[in-house]
Every structure is written in C-alpha cells, then in structure tokens.
What we know:
Structural class of chain B: alpha+beta
Mean pLDDT of chain B: 80
Structural class of chain A: alpha+beta
Distance between the termini of chain A: 9 Å
Helix content of chain A: 55-70%
Number of strands of chain A: 4
Number of domains of chain B: 2
Strand order of the largest sheet of chain A: 2-3-1-4
Radius of gyration of chain B: 33 Å
CATH class of the largest domain in chain B: Mainly Alpha
Shape of chain B: elongated
Strand content of chain B: 15-25%
Oligomer: heterodimer
CATH class of the largest domain in chain A: Mainly Alpha
CATH architecture of the largest domain in chain B: Up-down Bundle
Helix content of chain B: 40-55%
Largest interface: A-B, 71 and 71 residues
Strand content of chain A: 5-15%
Largest sheet of chain A: 4 strands, antiparallel
Low-confidence stretches of chain A: none
Shape of chain A: elongated
Number of domains of chain A: 2
Amino acid sequence: MFDIVGKRPYFLAVSAVLIVASAIALGVLGLHPGIDFGSGSLLTLKFEQPVAPAEVEGVLSDLGYVATAEKSEENILIRTSQLAAAEKTALKRDLQEAFGALEEEGFENVDPVIARETARIAGIAVGISAVGILAYLTWAFRRMPRPLHYGTCALIALVHDIIIVLGVFSILGGILDWETNLMFITGVLAVIGYSVNNTVVVFDRIRENLQRGISPHFEAVINSSLLDTLSRSLNTSLTTLVVLVALVLFVGASIQNFAVVLLIGVIAGTYSSLFVAPQLLAVWESGRWSGLLRRPVLPAR
Amino acid sequence: MPRRNTWILLTIVVVFALALWVLFPIDGERFGRKGIQFGLDLEGGVRLVYQADLSGVEPGSEEQVIDGVVSVIANRINPLGVTEPHIEKRGADQIVVELPRLSVTDVQKERIGRTALLEFREWVEVPVGGEEAEVTLEEAPEETGEPAEEEQGPGVEDQEPSENEGEQEPVQNQQKEAADGDGDEPETIGMWVPATGTIDGEEKVLNSSYFKRNTYVTRGDLGEMLLVFEWTEEGAELSEQITSRLVGEPLAIFEGEGPEAEPLLGDDGRPIAPIVRSVIRERGQIEGLSLNEATELSKQLNAGRLPVPLTNIGEVTVTPKLGEDFVQLSVRAGIIGIVLVMLFMIAYYRIPGLMASLALAFYGVLVLALFKLIPVTLTLAGIGGFVLSIGMAVDANVLIFERMKEEFLMGRTLGAAIEAGFSRAWTAIRDSNITTIIVCIILIWVGSAIAFGGSVQGFGLTLLIGVTVSMFTAIFVTRTLLRLFVGTALAKRGRLFTMYSGKKDV
C-alpha cells in the first residue's frame, strides 16, 4: 500500500514554502487593483492604423494626461483617473489628431464611492463563504466525534489555497501587469467552492471508512481514504483544468483573470484536499501537534 | 426492472428532444423565436450609475423624490429608441440606467443625467413662407405678442434650427388633429415655446421650481383623477399672467430647457397638454389624466421641484461588436472544452465514459434550454461559469465510476457494481455539491449588491443551475444508460467497463 500519510512532513513543508513565498510576493508586489476596486476610467479604442501602446502613452503624457496604455488583442486599453464625458471626448479628439481615425469600443468609469463599496462587499462575501462552509461541514459531519475538526481543517485548506492563488496572481500581476477586477473576485469565490468540494469528497471517504472500521488506526484510515479518492481527485481536476485552459486560450484577455485564478485554485485545491486538510485532521485527531513534523508509522496490514 | 429502465430511457429521450426544441435558435432570432438573452457585456449597451444629491430635499420625502427622478429619466430615454431600457433605484440615493444594444453618444449620456426641471410650454403658430427657418423662428414671439421671448426661443434654437424644426413637426400634426380649426392655415408651423410671465420687469419661464409643495393625486367627486398643485408666491404671479392669456389653449409640460427639452408623454404617446379652463393663481388641478398618467406626472413634477443634482459615479459601455466576439470565442472554447472532456472520459472509462459523455451532451443542451426558459441573462462570466460547469459536471460520474470499479474488484457482478457505485457515491456527490451551491448563492448575492456585479451574478447563477442539473444528468441519465448493458454480451467484457481484474465471468 502506497504511504501518503507517511510523507506528511514533506507535503506540509511544500505547503509552508508556497505559503511563505506567496505571502512575500503579496507583501512585496501586492495586487494591483483595477478600476473596479481602485476607481478611474478604462477606455477601449480601436485605431484604424496600427498603433503601439507606448506611442499612445507618449502622446497622452505630452498632452498632460496621466494615463497608461496597453494592447489587448486588436484594441488599445487606456487607463486614466476618472474621466467625465467631456474630458473623454477631448482625449479621443487629441488621439485622433495624433494617430488618425479611431473608434470607441468600450468605456468604463468607476467612482471611488462604487470602488470602495465593491471592495467592501467582495471582502464580506469571502468572509460569509468561509463561515457558511465551516457551518455546513460541521453539520454534514455531525455524526463524527468532533465535527468541528472537519470543518476547520477544510477551512484551513481553503485559506491555504486562497493565499497561494493571491500570491501567484500577484507575481503574474507584477510580470504581466494584470489587475484585480470583478472577474478576479468571481474566480476567487469559485476557488472557494471548488477547493472545499474536493476536500469534502476526501472527508466523506474518511467518514465512511471510519464507520466501516477498516482499521483502528486513524492514520491508516486516512491513508486508504486518500488512495481510494486519489484517481477521482486527479481526474476531476484534469477535466476542470481542460475546460479552463480552453477558456484561457480561446476567449483570451476578457476572461483571463477569472480562468487563471481558477487554474491556480484548482491545482492548489487538489493539492490541499489530498495533502493538507486530511493530514491536519489526522494530527488534530491524534492530539499530538508534534505529528506535524514527525513521520507517522502505519501499522503493517 | 429492465422494462422500467426502458420507460425512463424513453422519458430522457423525450426531455432531450424538448430541450433541443426549446434551445433553437441559440443566437439571434429565427422563425419568430428568440435566442438566449445576453447581458450588456456580450450584446453591447450602456450601464450608468448615478448618485443623487438629496441634500436639497425635505427629510422624509427622499424616496418619493428619487422615484420622481427615475420617472423623469425614463421619459428622457424614450426618444433614444431603446427597446428594453431598465431604470431603477439602487439603495437610498443611487439610480441605475441600463440601455442594452445601444450606442449612446457622449452628449446623450450627459443629457440622461442632467438635473430634472420641468417647464410649461404654450403652442404658437408661426407663418411659414419662403424664408429661412431661422427667420421664421425669430418671428414667432412677435406673432404671439411676446417680444421678450426672443431671448428664450431663438437664442437657443439658433444652434440647431433644422433639427429642431424636424422634431416639432409631428407635434404640429397631432395638434392639428386635436384642436380643429387651428389647421386651416397651411402656411403656418406650430411649435411649443416656453410659457413666460414678467416679474419685476424680468421675463421668467413657469417651471417646476415654482411648486410650493409636492403635487399629489386625488380623486374628484365623480371619481375622476385630479393632480393637485400649489404655486409659490412668484409662481402664482407667473401662472396668473400665463393662464389668463391662454384660457382655452393647451399648456404642455416639457422636461429640460431649450431645444433639447422633451415633452412629457401620456399613455397614448402624445404630449400631455391640458387645456387651460380658467385663470390659475395659487392652486390648481389638472383633470382628465389616467391614473397612470397622473401618478407619473405628479412624481415627475415633484422631482423637478427641488434640484436633485445627479453625478455619474459609474459607467460601462460596450460596443455590440466587441460583445459579439466574446460570444463566438466562448462558444468555441465551450465546444472544444466539452469535446476534450468527452474524449478523456471515453479514453479513461471506456463504455461508462461514453455513457457519461452522452449524459454530458444532454447536460449541455438541458442547461442552455433552462437558461432560455428561466430566463438567465448570459454574461461573459456566466458563459465562463457554464464552461467551468462542463468540467465539473463529470465529477459525479468520475466519483461513481471509481466506486463501481472498487465494487467490481470486490467481486460484484457488473449490475451490482453499477447499483452499488451509484448509491455509495451519493453522499460525496451531495455534500460536495452543496458547498458549491453555498458559494453560488453568495456569488448571486454579491452580484446583486454591487453596482457592476451583473457578471458575478451571472456566474453564480449559471454555476448554480449547472451544478444542480449535473447532479440529475450524471446520476439519473448515466445510470439509466449503463443499466442497458446489464445482462448483455458486452457486460461480460469487464475491460470495456474498466474492470480489469476480479471475476471474469459476470
């Protein structure tokens, strides 16, 4: 029998390293709030003549605008502080003089009032999701001796996934200039659902195996539950990853934040549902926290 | 049991056919049937959020005033020709305006959010000769014996004389129908001009800022609708001058000032223009309105009584072209995703995988049909949710098939393994999906609570529907299909069911 539980310290060490690295990335690079959270305007323009974003930026800064420009497929995205309708018209006129005919493909304008409200509600949503899931899992495992342990371990795994998602995203944001927007938050909330979904399947198997009394040794029960659910966890993650990669490749920039957050989340979530949540549960149930660092020895079958 | 299974299979086929029928056409409109409803981000349009400054409003009447502002904005949007405009309050002091499938110019956008002011206007006939329009318009006030109107009317109208004339034309025709005798001089053109009076030698337009208190709607002795209003001191003076001049003549109510002003329209789509019956001083009433007209008009007049400045605090504009690209790209991503998932399932799980793929096709059609029936407005994130749900929909099948494999290895027959696999996997399917459903409900709430949360809400909704339907298709449909194999020659070949060891003969 393959021994997953026995390699616990290594798995947890990998998680610890990832979490610390993510925390450092978050601390150093941070997340760049897009206009949904940071307010401002985002103008999507399509130029008839091909134009480089740097040229647009140059012209705009010469004219006294504080703006950044980037290419998104065939369009140029221009970010500025909030633009009133008249200011936007003036900006478009100025660019038209510099680069020739252009067309407005889209425009977003978010006031700090809305941005603050959005950020606040997004925070509340993440909080409520966490509490709701803890409550549900505690209820779902109410027949177990310590149901709160199951909920808490699932929640820790969830926090683990979210920190890694945020960390990786902040690195991507640093390299590729990605910003956090509503699509990002949607992705984060979806990761919450997905991560717990995986953990529940493993816990469900642990519950069943405990009830069937396959072994008096808790560590052994966990190990065989992990092995039982391993191929399911990998296969489901694989099918989910396949559709997410299809979204990233074929839909592109407009949905990339959402799909990439989920991609990272699915990988982190699969890892934590196998190697973090059940391991913590085993240690907690044994009541010896030194078990986090020590390799448990499974009884020979 | 087999006979019952046949009936269930027949039901599934019928449901599948019905879903296909509902689904057609997916996009656009064919044979009088509409496609799936797409959100602003996919079909283009504008979403504007306004913050109303209610500091000038008496405490307690804020809600009423906001309702009035909403009603005034609705009136402003009418001439833009949007098929399904959506205007609503958001919280205590915000207003959201949604104009799907419409390109709105910056000027039009600014007009939507200007401060409400309602102006009373009178009808004047001016001769149309060979002269230019400008001259005619300038002559208009003299014709009615009000020289001071030169500053009002032509001063603004000079900017766009031709457009203005065009706008007035239909009004003229209507007026001719309504008031007989007016139209026998073909050489004149009629137009609404602001009704003014003189106070301390100054020319002033009678408008909604002269209402002393909010207007209200009541019923008269005969049960007819009455809209009761009361003027301030200055308003009463203006009203007296104007109504004494216009007894027997109509007095229309316009929203806005100058050539951009739009008449308030009644239920029949014509300007509301009550005839002045007698001279009105401090108080008056408007009769002959329907209940709907009276309540809307009263709200609108009240909104214009005290200034409620609107600030645009948020906007999303998407051109229809950009949205079209999104739909095409995500449809492609969805199809490629579903095909890859099917290939994987068939390669890994063989016959059960094939059955799961059929169930997945059924799932896709059923979910899209539900989107249309409910209906769900599909946003970009919503499509993302649907595509994601394809990947997750097979989860239940994966759980079941892994379970079946175990049961088979423990020495059960194929039939028994199928039944045990389904029943044993159920708790895991249920518990894991409930956590996803909890998150979906939170996403739907988040989407409704934030100003631009339509996409988040769309995602929550599509994933919720997806998870719920997938529990049905992955369990019910796949099991029914798999049962078909029990007792057939194929069932003896365990490998086709990914059951590699255990008893060979079932």
